[in-house]
Amino acid sequence: MKILVAERETEVAPGTTLYVLRDRIKPGADVVVCNGAPAAADRELAEGDRVVFIRRGEAPPREELEALMAARHTPGVHERVKRAAVGVAGLGGLGSAIAIALARVGVGRLVLADFDVVEPSNLNRQQFFVDQLGMAKTEALAANLARINPYVRTELHTVRLTPDNVPGIFGGVDVLVEAFDRADQKAMLLESFCGAFPEKPVVMASGLAGHASGNTVRVRRLGRNVHVVGDLESAAEPGRGLMAPRVGIAAHMQANTVLRLLLGEEEG
Amino acid sequence: MKVTFKYFAQVRQATGADSEQLVLDDGADMAAALSAAADRHGEAFKKLVLDEFGVVRPSMLVLVNGVPAPRGGQRRLADGDEVTLLSAVSGG
């Protein structure tokens, strides 16, 4: 009979039990999940069961994690996304959340750039932890990404981005994400990247501060290869701070736009 | 020559229009085009888009025919071109 083990179809003999299969496939697994719930006791497997064996603290092998992602995202999507390289310029509230979303969806290579370190004031919205205070954001985020998907390749640039170094750092990406805080840096990045690579898409953000309705954050296609996420107006300023929910909405809309572009779909 | 301007967000508020067509001298560059727009729309537009020296502000996103253009102002425009203007705002 056929069952699914870590989303991969597996032939097992009738009468096989959960624990027998565990000892054959992953000896020492201390957690057995069957049909979406932890199994409290051994039992005979049935046709179509979905089983996952977990050794706590151990990363699943690459092929197992990929099979899980391919099952969730469909194999066609997974293969295309896995081949892609995406640049993220700025690893604050937007960039850290975008990188995590792209790692979770299985983007093969992430080029991450930020000159800054993790500060206490970042923790209200950025995807870092208290034990990472003082670390370079590039290093801290790479560590967090490795805990999510250890097979995503990351290329780190702990530098301040300038018109001179943008083309060299991001020349190999398929899509560039602008995730800066300062408005003038957003414009600088767009101008310097598109000046060098006018055919490559850029996904920007503008207007995401405060707690106005999330429905006002949307994707607009500003130019042939330029998409902007946000309400275009809500600047970060005294009385209107950057807050996790709305920054997160914008970040995930940027990540979704990247995904759609990688899959050849029109957006905005 | 005729150049179409598309405005977003604050620039749209300053001009009161989503888009408009301006008639410019043949061969006009971006600086001349923005100066003409500023003459038409007054102080609000001028303060938003240009600094005190008439240079495009560093937060302005400027696209010509859907492609980001240098903000230096020297870019020559042609009849039928479309210029897009958006002032990026901080936050990330």
List keywords for this structure.
heterodimer, A: 268 residues, alpha/beta, Ubiquitin-like (UB roll), Rossmann fold, 2 domains, five-stranded mixed β-sheet, 8 helices, elongated, B: 92 residues, alpha+beta, 3 helices, globular
Report on this model:
The complex is a heterodimer of chains A (268) and B (92). Chain A has 268 residues and is α/β, with parallel strands linked by helices. Chain A folds into two domains: 2-58, Roll (Ubiquitin-like (UB roll)), CATH 3.10.20.30; 75-262, NAD(P)-binding Rossmann-like Domain (Rossmann fold, 3-Layer(aba) Sandwich). Chain A has eight helices and twelve strands. The longest helix of chain A has 19 residues, at 244-262. Chain A is elongated. The relative contact order of chain A is 0.12. By secondary structure, chain B is an alpha+beta fold. Chain B has one domain (2-87): Ubiquitin-like (UB roll). Chain B is built from three helices and five strands. Chain B has a five-stranded mixed beta sheet with strand order 2-1-5-3-4. In chain B, helix 1 (9-15) runs antiparallel to helix 3 (43-49) and helix 2 packs antiparallel against helix 3. The longest helix of chain B has 12 residues, at 30-41. The radius of gyration of chain B is 12 Å and the shape is globular. Chain B starts with a strand and ends in a 5-residue tail after the last strand. The model of chain B has no long low-confidence stretch (mean pLDDT 94). The A-B interface holds A 90, 92-95, 179-184, 186-188, 190-191, 194-195, 198, 204-209, 220, 222-226, 228, 230, 232-237, 242, 247 and B 8-10, 58-61, 63, 66-71, 84, 86-92.
In short:
The complex is a heterodimer of chains A (268) and B (92). Chain A has 268 residues and is α/β, with parallel strands linked by helices.
